């Protein structure tokens, strides 16, 4: 404890001031002008003091007292009531300061806790903001989905309405067909007589009446040659045929054609029964199909012939049909006319069809199926010889086996370049040209 004495004795806090020109005491030795002395009383050490002269001539005395409990101060520093009051107040202030420090420490701790809580709240707020943003985004997506679902619902309703309309229309069509049967046919359909290229793009066409032949297709407005589907009245299944809509007014159902030798006609009974080849090239329509078409009315037959010099002729027969398989597809042909001499009807009429595997010697010699009669005057299903003429001696043949029409060259050893056989109703009349 440090005490300052200036011209008297006054206690402020823990400092004493003494004012006067001289301060003396018989128990103390004082030195002026800055001297320092030990203050003692008996055996008790009280501390140090110092003095100095102030500019105004007064003497200033300062003393440092020890911080010891249960020790008496010298008499000159004996505490008065005022000093005791201030000492007590000083202790209270010290206690208050300590309490204040503790309070401040607690407030600081609480402040830290509040800051931590604020940080947590800020993080929670950010999470809520993010969640709100996510919810807003999801709500926006749900709104879009709802709009799309509404649109799809409207489209679905429209489709349902259209479907109901189509069902009503279809019901009307079915009822109309029931009262007046028509036919939905394929212009081109899968068939063993069609090439793979021809079956790639089938075309469906509705006509008023099911076509029984190419003539009925012609009457339904089909005027272009090509492959079409017909439903013979005596048959159980539709068949594909090649229709010639150009020759002599059209309406012809072709059942045989030779033109380049790409198809082998040396076939067995079953193959001639079902048909073989390519409808757009060389083919045989099949004896069953020929029977079904030719037996459903009165049909005429036209045979077109062409040699290797480009000369073309034809034979026309007013009546043509063949019987069923049980009767071995017996031929009925008559009423010849045309630009070539007849080598077919007068000699082959009423003959049964034969192939090599049926045991017919003529079929074995001629290497093809035909209505043979000792063996033939005409055989349009023989071997295709390019150039026309061929020799029995040079090929060790048992007999002529080419595409023969005897009266063309008056020879069995001349093979024609192109031949075709086709039928149409005898009563057919082509449309008038515009």
Would you write up a description of this structure?
This protein is α+β, with helices and mostly antiparallel strands. It has helices at 81-179, 214-219, 269-274, 287-294, 345-348, 361-366, 406-409; strands spanning 2-6, 10-12, 15-17, 36-41, 44-53, 59-64, 183-186, 204-207, 226-230, 239-244, 252-258, 276-277, 283-284, 299-306, 312-322, 331-338, 378-379, 404-405, 418-425. The strands form five sheets. Strands 9, 10, 11, 12, 13, 14, 15, 16 and 19 form a nine-stranded antiparallel sheet that branches. Strands 1-6-5-4 form a four-stranded antiparallel sheet, with no helix packed on it. It is rod-shaped, with a radius of gyration of 67 Å. The model is unreliable at 1-44, 186-190 and 196-202 (pLDDT under 50).
Provide the β-strand percentage band.
Answer: 15-25%
Structural class by SSE content: alpha+beta
| Poorly predicted regions | 1-44, 186-190, 196-202
Largest sheet: 9 strands, antiparallel
Annotation field: number of helices: 7
Helix content: 25-40%
Order of helices and strands: EEEEEEHEEHEEEHEEHEEEHHEEHE
Number of strands: 19
Mean pLDDT: 80
Termini separation comes to 145 Å
Shape: rod-shaped
